[in-house]
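[User]
Um, tokens okay?
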Amino acid sequence: GEGARTRVVVVRLDPARVRLALDTLMAERRMPDGARLREPRWTLDAAPRRALVAVNAGQFAEDLFGARPFGWTVLAGREWQAPGSGALASAVVIDGAGRVRIEPAAALASPARARGVAWAFQSYPALLEGDGDVPPMLRAGDAIDRTHRDARLAIGTLRDGRVVLALTRFDALGPALGALPLGLTTPETAALMGALGCDRAVMLDGGISAQLQLRDGGTVRRWRGWRAVPMGLVVFAR
């Protein structure tokens, strides 16, 4: 099906050579009744100019006051938001030394969860657990829609500590329409991350939110999304 017409953009990062951080951009809009509504404003255009890589991070949640990042959020060593719940929620954690790991939601129960953490965010669903195992909920059952196809974005870790980002683009109608919400299923995305060598992986916000920037020397390549989000993951040279 349409999965056969999917291009994958893959970025491999070595935390020993680069530094990862989070970048947020939200705005408040006052409603006629006086309420303040949060609006996500982060896109690739908001990424710092010296960033080697920029990509939207995590998922976002909406409530009566607008949008915010989903779940656990640590910014510059300060816990900004408590963990969210969900059987397949995972946290992407960047420690003070710059190492990156992906942890299940159950690992965030400790009150000391933010100790030694520089940056962290949550996302879902988990695609690969330890040793590259696909979670049972992705293999069977109706807890997750396993047939829906969409543009996908995922982050994973390799056993040697490197990080993999994978963005899909629909490749049948040309680059201008690559961001159409067509492409892989969630189980197919798990298979993709496993084929790229990841031992752990989690989905990031895909569909029209998915966006990625790569700076290679003097050349900047952008795969834009169609929607602003609350937060991005940015990568700098050490």
